[in-house]
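User: Please run a holo structure prediction.
Assistant: Happy to. Please share the sequence and the ligand.
User: Here you go; the ligand is 48F.
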Amino acid sequence: MQIEETVISKAILQSYYQKLMESLETQVAIVGGGPSGLTAAYFLAKGQIKVSIFEKKLSLGGGMWGGGMMFNQIVVQREGREILDGFGVSTKEFSPGYWVADSVEAVSTICSQTLKAGAKIFNLIYAEDVTIKEGVATGLVLNWTAVETAELHVDPLCIKAQFIVDATGHPAKLAGVIQQKMGLKVPSQKIIGEGPMWAEAGEKAVLENTQEIYPGVFVAGMAANAVFGAPRMGPIFGGMLLSGKRTADLIQRKLEGKP
Ligand code: 48F
């Protein structure tokens, strides 16, 4: 069989174009494809909600690949294990209440299930800003990561979304942009910054901190603890998965017009 290079190029460009066009007006746009962003997208897509993830790096998975200090195993507690079970990630009980999973299996399986559930995933694109109209966030301002890396002066493109999720991890990037331009709609009005390591408190707090921080913008995962000044928790990942699920639940309720 003859293989024509231009057909390969056309296949890539046309299918990418279609995926991007379908995401130009979406219900939920998630910034960051770590464990919390992926899990949020998975549960939203499962609920038939149109959702896209924009990830700055080449690979999805955020801080999950490296396990703890590059020992590529992750730990989850019971509630986290239930979510991994749902994805089909194998876990092994290490001692009562602690399960371990292979981080490579966890990331690859979660990515695969999230795509199969119907979420659209874009890598190598970062959100540099949000569009805000009359006090409500209405979309994302996107550009290629390569543009930022090369410090090129290239204008971005925008997409429209009913809800945005900041799942950018420790730096809480989007919350930072909103804080700088508008102030956050949280009691502190600004990012407090994450506290020192305390796994138990951090895992508890991340669920409470998963909430709307500006009209139309939710914060999930480690970004949520950074906004509210809660502790970090290290390589236990149940809180990230649960925060993603809570984000999906909260947004689904909003879309259904429930308080
Ligand atoms: O850091 P990350 O894994 O966030 P998470 O889902 O999970 C945190 C844990 O990995 C771990 C932890 C708990 O066990 O402490 O650190 O809260 O994933 C965040 C993703 O967001 C991307 C970044 O490349 C990473 O993959 N990201 C950051 N800024 C942007 C972005 C941006 N402006 N646009 C797009 N993606």
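Residues 143 and 156 are 5 Å apart (CA to CA).
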